[in-house]
Amino acid sequence: MTEISIDPTLGPVRARTGGERDVLDSFLDFHRAMVLRKARGLADADATRRLVPSATTLAGLVRHLTLIERNWFPYLLAPGPGEVFPTSEEDAAESFALTGADTVEELAGAYEAACERSRELAARFDLDHVVPHPQLGEVSLRWILVHMIEETARHVGHADILRELTDGETGAV
């Protein structure tokens, strides 16, 4: 029998025969890693440059996804006193805004920390665990994970286009 060679950086491929939780976690982590891959290695000026008509930038995508991680995991699974899930379109648009002091590495570090906190919180619950959501009524952890895969993957596509427009780099690995 011929040994199949699989690039070890492709977590979803390694989890191809795993359980549901392994598959969901590996796809989300893969897309999280791709966000960072698209942003890292760029000068701050390149990562914050607007290349499309909207205010979307590579650095802004990292900031947005950091806030999304915080919204869907800590705010729903382990809210602190006074923490409220943001629900307005204004909150979403503001999540892409950068300050003049933002750097790629600081934004990437904050994203990594938010993702690690999300992993820690999600690991406490089974996939069927249900929490209240201010707009949807209730959501399960399974639904949150699938939503986060969709949200993160969609923005990885944006990041891929922005990175290609910046320096021509494309691809997942």
What does this structure look like?
With about 170 residues, the protein is mainly alpha-helical. The chain has a single domain (about 10-165), classed as dinb family like domain (Four Helix Bundle (Hemerythrin (Met), subunit A)), CATH 1.20.120. About 60% of the residues lie in helices and about 5% in strands. The protein has eight helices and two strands; from the N terminus they run H-H-H-H-H-H-H-E-E-H. The chain has a two-stranded antiparallel sheet with strand order 1-2. The longest helix is centred in the last third of the chain and has 27 residues, at about 140-165. The model has no long low-confidence stretch (mean pLDDT about 90). This is DinB family protein. It comes from Micromonospora endolithica.
List the defining traits of the structure above:
173 residues, mainly alpha, Four Helix Bundle (Hemerythrin (Met), subunit A), two-stranded antiparallel sheet, 8 helices, globular, DinB/YfiT-like, MST-like, DinB family protein
